[in-house]
Design goal:
Elements: E1 2-7, H1 15-29, E2 33-38, H2 52-56, H3 65-74, E3 77-83, H4 91-106, E4 129-136, H5 141-154, E5 158-159, E6 167-169, H6 182-202
Length: about 200
């Protein structure tokens, strides 16, 4: 069982990193292999809508996305973590999600004529167990959380539930203070249990 965490905060080892690392530490204790990728500092541009992936069966833009995409494909579980910027996920994560979803769909499907209907086959994300994590000082969580959920639902992922939404409250005045959010930390630990449990049940 391999679980990949993607931290999309531009700030290294900030609040978003703290919550994500809390989940990863717990799933590791439960026997999963873990990996954490930080998008900060990586060169990943947005999707150009060039449709080059239709023929190439992969994204044709050459940058750091390919390394991230390969790790996504190999993972059984995905934890997508983002701070909230004006009620949205970060541009860094949006670039990864757009390019992964688009090229991942065409990796296993063929484009049809305009008048033809699609019967989509599985994509590279099909069956991957996924959970979002969002972090805000006070508000805007729901929209950012929903962005990730909508992406997952449209890419054939299995979404893990929890006893509450996987949201952390931290960062007043720019502070790194996620460790003070006891309720949020408890939510993350419960998420770890649920993610491992779902993956194990699927693999029986």
């Amino acid at each position: 069982m391999k679980i990949l965490g993607i931290c999309s905060s531009p700030r290294l080892e900030g609040n978003t990193y703290y919550y994500l690392n809390t989940v990863l530490s717990e799933v590791e204790k439960l026997g999963a292999e873990i990996e954490l990728i930080q998008l900060s500092g990586k060169n990943i541009s947005g999707c150009r809508g060039c449709y080059g992936c239709v023929e190439a069966k992969k994204c044709v833009i050459e940058d750091d996305f390919q390394e991230v995409f390969d790790k996504i494909v190999k993972a059984d579980g995905l934890l997508l973590a983002s701070p909230v910027y004006h009620s949205c996920i970060t541009p860094e994560l949006k670039c990864v999600l757009d390019r992964t979803g688009f090229s991942g769909r065409w990796a296993k499907n063929e484009m049809k004529e305009t008048k033809s209907s699609y019967e989509w086959k599985e994509g590279v994300l099909s069956g991957k167990v996924l959970a979002p994590i969002t972090v805000a000082r006070r508000a805007g969580q729901n929209f950012a959380f929903a962005e990730i959920l909508l992406w997952a639902a449209g890419n054939d992922c299995i979404i893990v539930g929890n006893t509450y939404w996987n949201m952390g409250v931290a960062g007043k005045g720019g502070a790194f203070n996620a460790q003070d959010d006891e309720e949020g930390i408890g939510i993350m630990k419960r998420l770890a249990v649920n993610m491992v449990d779902v993956i194990r049940k699927l693999n029986k």
